[in-house]
Design a protein that fits this description.
- The chain is mainly β.
- It has a single domain, classed as Regulator of chromosome condensation 1/beta-lactamase-inhibitor protein II (Methylamine Dehydrogenase, Chain H), CATH 2.130.10.30.
- Helices cover 2% and strands 38% of the residues.
- It is built from two helices and 29 strands.
- It is globular and about 50 Å long.
- The chain starts with 16 loop residues before the first strand and ends in a 12-residue tail after the last helix.
- The longest helix has 5 residues.
- InterPro entries: RCC1-like_dom, RCC1/BLIP-II, Reg_chr_condens, Signaling_Regulatory_Domain.
- It comes from Flemingia macrophylla.
- Keywords: Repeat.
Length: 438
């Protein structure tokens, strides 16, 4: 069929975005019809298109065609996708520290199934900065990747190149997991919260700044927890009675308590006491929550407009985010410095940092208000506006590790010694462009 420019084939229904996930500087979406799209920074292969190019617009990931993908999840610079029918988990992107789970440190430019997870029925996969967690349908928890602060929960600080079972959760039914930069959390079926890994800012919620190599139970006002998310160094959880609690790093107001202080234990966000929270998401230094009525609120670091309230001023209390036509929101995801939302009208909006095209608008400028991603607009023909990546038959491996490009790792100074004070440590946030740090 020949179509004139700008016309759409009426028989082809527009693709509907089911969910989105945002990484450090890239974004991924799962669409109806088993279509996976990615865009943004591609330097580490995290887009899965077989190269290291940035993409300014959503691009269909051809390597996953026909794989019946049901979930996608972004780490900082890597990506995971789950297929229920094939009982497979695919990973790609930066491979240092074994975060891809393939048994080595190699980077992958296209999706590759994780052999150790083949055949397992998974209910969830969570990605942090350099480590990952998975929960099986029979409630086993596995972890892999970087482990310098015990974030794998294995009782050691040795990295794991393949998924390993967290033995301390044997016999404890786990409902949900979440991963931050160097810490991890889990909720049991009966509402108990556990945390482990790096605790320097109180992000474990255990009342101190110590690391934990094994999961430890967290007390949240004696209440049960039904939902949890991690920011880079803070934790957000929702109780069964509807209360929203945060703890950890608070220098940029990301905890929402009206101050810029760290909090070592879960503290209720009083400004949201009368809201019923349906979804939470944590960014590098900002937080977003979605209410049951479709209202979106955000707070924290706002240098690039990632809160979406029309300015670039950090805020330490929840702020309401407005959408065109007063659209309600049904799904959100925070990246490090950008945010993506799907509305109930099936439109997709993004805002915040845009330097690598992670907003999907075709430009590399920042936005401080929700901006529609035209490629997914239900008012047009999204399928005709989404290009496909070229199919690749190769393994997608790079010839050398990218560690040479990222010689400095989180929380280490140039000499390799640990910062002596928290304020000194703030100056050594890495894996981030220098002009993004402050």
């Amino acid at each position: 069929m020949v179509m004139e420019e700008g016309m759409c084939e009426v028989d082809a229904p527009p693709l509907r975005v089911l969910l989105v996930s945002a990484g450090a500087s890239h974004s991924v979406a799962l669409l109806s019809g088993n279509v996976v799209c990615s865009w943004g920074r591609g330097e580490d292969g995290q887009l899965g298109h077989g190269d290291t190019d940035d993409r300014l617009l959503p691009t269909k990931l051809s390597a996953l065609d026909g794989q019946d993908i049901t979930r996608v999840t972004c780490g900082a610079d890597h990506t995971m996708a789950c297929s229920e029918s094939d009982k497979a988990v695919y990973s790609w992107g930066w491979g240092d520290f074994g975060r891809l789970g393939h048994g080595d440190h190699s980077d992958m430019l296209i999706p590759r199934p994780i052999k150790a997870l083949q055949g397992l029925m998974l209910q969830q996969v969570a990605c942090g900065d350099s480590h990952c967690l998975a929960v099986t349908m029979d409630s086993h928890v596995l972890s892999w990747g970087r482990n310098q602060n015990g974030q794998l929960g294995l009782g050691t600080i040795e990295d794991s190149l393949v998924p390993q079972k967290i033995q301390n959760f044997e016999g404890i039914p786990i409902k949900m997991v979440a991963a931050g930069a160097e810490h991890s959390v889990a909720i049991t079926e009966d509402g108990n919260l556990y945390a482990w890994g790096w605790g320097r800012y109180g992000n474990l919620g255990l009342g101190d700044r110590n690391d934990r190599m094994l999961p430890e139970k967290v007390t949240v006002d004696g209440d049960k927890i039904r939902m949890v998310a991690c920011g880079w160094r803070h934790t957000i959880c929702v109780s069964s009675s509807g209360g929203l609690y945060t703890h950890g790093w608070g220098k940029y107001g990301q905890l929402g308590h009206g101050d810029f202080e760290d909090h070592l234990g879960p503290r209720k966000v009083q400004a949201l006491s009368h809201k019923l929270i349906s979804q939470v998401s944590g960014g590098w230094r900002h937080s977003m929550v979605l209410t049951s009525s479709g209202e979106l609120l955000g707070w924290g670091w706002n240098k690039f407009g990632q809160i979406g309230v029309g300015n670039n001023i950090d805020c330490c209390s929840p702020m309401h985010v407005n959408f065109p036509r007063n659209q309600n929101v049904r799904h959100i995801s925070c990246g490090w410095r950008h945010t993506i939302a799907v509305t109930e009208l099936d439109n997709v909006y993004s805002w915040g940092r845009g330097a690598n095209g992670q907003l999907g608008t075709g430009k590399t400028i920042d936005r401080n208000v929700p901006t529609i991603i035209d490629a997914f607009s239900v008012d047009g023909c999204s399928e005709q506006q989404i290009e496909s990546s070229k199919p690749y038959a190769s393994s997608g491996k790079l010839l050398s590790s990218l560690s040479e490009r990222y010689a400095v790792v989180p929380d280490e100074t140039a000499s390799g010694s640990q910062p002596t004070t928290l304020e000194e440590e703030y100056k050594h946030d890495t894996s981030v462009p220098g002009n993004d740090v402050n």
